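As a warm-up, study this chain.
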Amino acid sequence: MHNLPCVASVQNCEKEADMNTQKLNILYGRLSRDDEMQGPSNSILNQQQLLEEYANANGLTPYIFLYDDGYSGTRWDRPAWQELISMVDADKVSCIVIKDSSRMGRDYLRVGLYREMFREKGVRLILINDSVDTLLNGEDDFTPFREIMAEWYARDTSKKIKSVFASKGRSGKPTTSTPPYGFMKDPNDKYKWLLDEPAASIVRRIFQMAMQGMGVHAIAKVLCDEKIERPSYYLGVRGRGRHMNDYDTHYKYAWGTATIINILKKMEYCGHMVNLRTTSASFKSKKKITKPQEDWIIFPNAHPAIIDQETFDTVQKLRHTPRRIDTLGEANPLTGLLWCVDCGEKLYNHRKSKPEKPTHKKLRDDYHCKTYKLSNSKFDTQCSPHHISTEAIRTIILEVIKKTSGYIQNHEAEFVEQLRATSNVKREELAKAHTKQITKNEKRIADLDKIFRTLYEDKALGKISEEIFEDMTSNYQQEKEEIKSQNEKLQAELDEFISDNDRAENFLALVRKYTSFEELTTPMLNSFVEKIIVHEGVWSDGNTGVGGKPRGARSQQVDVYLKYIGNFDVPDMRTAEQIEADRIAEEKLEAKRAYHREKTRNWVAKKRAAEAEKAAAENAKSETRKSKTAKPKTAKTA
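Now compare it with the structure written out below.
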């Protein structure tokens, strides 16, 4: 970069009042990073010297010098060039002097349009090295060819740079000049990243807040309130990053949601090097296009990790789960984990900050089946409520985690052996079923190919019309695509299950992360639970409660699927004496519950009878008052 102002006033300029009344001569220069590699002849200073000498020798005064330093010729949002064009539009320019046409740009179509614009505005264009002067020589027939060559040069340079970047990216070296926030370059090796601990601690905290169920807006607000320096300012004041010279000191704590999202989705924080994740549509476009993730070049464990893979994967799942913030001011962390066993849809959360009725003591916080809640009629629906309270489901989850973790801590070897045995059985069943379906699908695809060939022959021989051919082939093609998609999904599930040999070790590592299981925290919930399948509640008299008044005790099956191990069945390690004691305690508890249910029913019956008796007495009194106040009827005279 050169220490020159964007607009340089030079000698022979008149007073400001005169400058506003006469047209100006513009000297324009441009320098890109590629031009710097060709030597000093293209430098801004040399361009300025050449243009000024030409202007002074040919009486092109007064003049001003505009330049763009560090801008490619394929870009047209260059500040000085835009200022030049605005002055031309305002009819303030008499002549434009440029070293050659490549300094204008390297897009021959756009350059041609600007030359035509100058001609219509009556602006004289001088390209010194190309010997072009539209006033003295008119249009040069070779100018368009020079502009095409300039564009070809830009295209060729772009290909070479892309090739260098691709080779560098495939070798495992970082392709970015600045490491992400939380890392810094090794002073002794520019391709090696080290932890920047102050920033890395903020990254860990951001992921931890996301694990607690906080949204990106809430995370950004916390960082703003605590006056944590935003990444661009943090890097800029330390002489790093893209904003080392233009960071804004007035908004150094202004964390945005886009910044939080960008941090939460970066795989680099797990220790992976991710290269070649973006591309561009053309060398003329600077807009970055993100490639599909399968096209990224990923090098695992290339540098120190800030967060573990388990935390990263959990946060990605949470980010793609919509969480509605209701009147309580926060989203329920269970949302997105509960599923209906019958229709396969998610369960909706219903919460209110105030009781629905004055007689209600507890606030509403429960879940219902999505299909049932969205039905027009509760008596004509494809599913049932599957109602369960948040308090009950949290109690069940905590009990499952405590029971499973307690068993593992005391019987680790038995747990590993049981899990592997179960895994082998499921793997064999899955492989058998999926392989059979894949073979069946491949046979159908082969049959469809034969049908295609037959239809094409019939069309060629005139046996069927073009309309019938198009209609039939479109249907068969759609079926073929659906079968192929199903095969890809089945094969992916098969490969994923077969390659998962470390599930026991992963779950053991997860258990060791927590020292206490007395309270179900949001990070614990998100770390342990994969999904929860909710069955319909069943009453002791067999009534499910749909379309009638339920009676008796209500029981409900809930299947909690833990990460890595699924719906693990913990063996019953109790002795015969403990089992008998627990059975007796459960019978006593159920008898107590039955007593209270019967007592409640009797109380409700008495209350309703008293209300009915009171209503009857009120009706009788009303009838008596009506009879006393009624006028006596008089006999009509003949």
